[in-house]
Amino acid sequence: DADVTQTPRNRITKTGKRIMLECSQTKGHDRMYWYRQDPGLGLRLIYYSFDVKDINKGEISDGYSVSRQAQAKFSLSLESAIPNQTALYFCATSDRDRGLDQPQHFGDGTRLSIL
Amino acid sequence: GESVGLHLPTLSVQEGDNSIINCAYSNSASDYFIWYKQESGKGPQFIIDIRSNMDKRQGQRVTVLLNKTVKHLSLQIAATQPGDSAVYFCAEGYYGNNRLAFGKGNQVVVIP
User: Fold this and answer.
1) Residues 6 or more apart in contact with residue B111 via CB below 8 angstroms
2) Do the Cβ atoms of A99 and B96 come within 8 Å?
3) B84 and B108 Cβ atoms separated by less than 8 Å
4) I need a surface site. Which of A66, B2, B84, B104 has the fewest CB within 10 A?
5) Residues 87-106 of B with CB under 8 A from A
């Protein structure tokens, strides 16, 4: 879905490095999310943001931080990467209609490998 | 904790046949369920959703069935095509709230 763009698409880095994954969207949605996907574990929510001034922890936020620079941009940082953070990372956005969240739209992911 | 799971890890289907993908959920309070399709190298793509006040909902070539009595959800794909080969996963939550619990995924392989 070109409306949600993640960069980079692939990244290999070393333990202890600081990594930033970026997400931008042209959908005009207020809500943005970061997930990680591991084989056999499905998608797990890391952080989410309902608007520029709102940041919320998900179920696995330890070791991660986020920044919502603008409505269209939501970045995920690993301050000091460790091997068990090797995973596929997805950004998603959603709209809100009459006070109700609409289904999320996902980017195509960033494959992150930490050696 | 609450969890969502799929019965079968891989489903092989002949092209043109119908596919049925099953999902069990454990939170009886969940009132919203959603199916996503994920193709290789792509992000999850919304297929169809259903609220708990319904037991069936149809889309284009897809039907979702909800059985609240046994906490079971299924996705039926009619006349399966090669482009339907993907991982499918369900998620549960509360209607209007995107704090969803995602299942582990079920691979569908369409045999030409």
Assistant:
1) B12, B13, B14, B15
2) yes
3) yes
4) B2
5) 89, 91, 95-100, 102-105
User: Does any CB of chain A come closer than 8 Å to the CB of residue B45?
Assistant: yes
In contact, B77 and B15? CB cutoff 8 Å: no
- Report the amino acid identity of residue B50: I
How many Cβ atoms from other residues are within 10 Å of residue B37's Cβ?
A: 22
In the structure, what pLDDT confidence band is assigned to residue A78 with cuts at 50, 70 and 90?
very high
CB-CB under 8 Å, A43 with B96: no
**How confident is the prediction along chain B (112 residues), in pLDDT tens digits per residue?**
333 443 447 899 999 999 999 999 989 999 999 999 999 889 999 999 999 999 999 999 999 999 999 999 999 999 999 999 999 999 999 888 888 999 888 999 999 9
Q: Find the CB nearest B96 among A43, A100, A109.
A: A100
Q: Is B34 within 8 Å of chain A by CB?
A: yes
Average pLDDT, chain A: 93
Distances (CA, A) of B47 to A7, B28, B42: 25, 23, 14
Cβ–Cβ < 8 Å for B92, B30: yes
Query: For residue B94, how many other CB atoms are within 10 A of its CB?
Result: 15
A11-29: average pLDDT: 96
Give the Cα separation of B54 and A13 in Å (integer). 47
DSSP A50-92: EETTEEEE-TT-TTEEEEEEETTEEEEEESS--GGG-EEEEEE
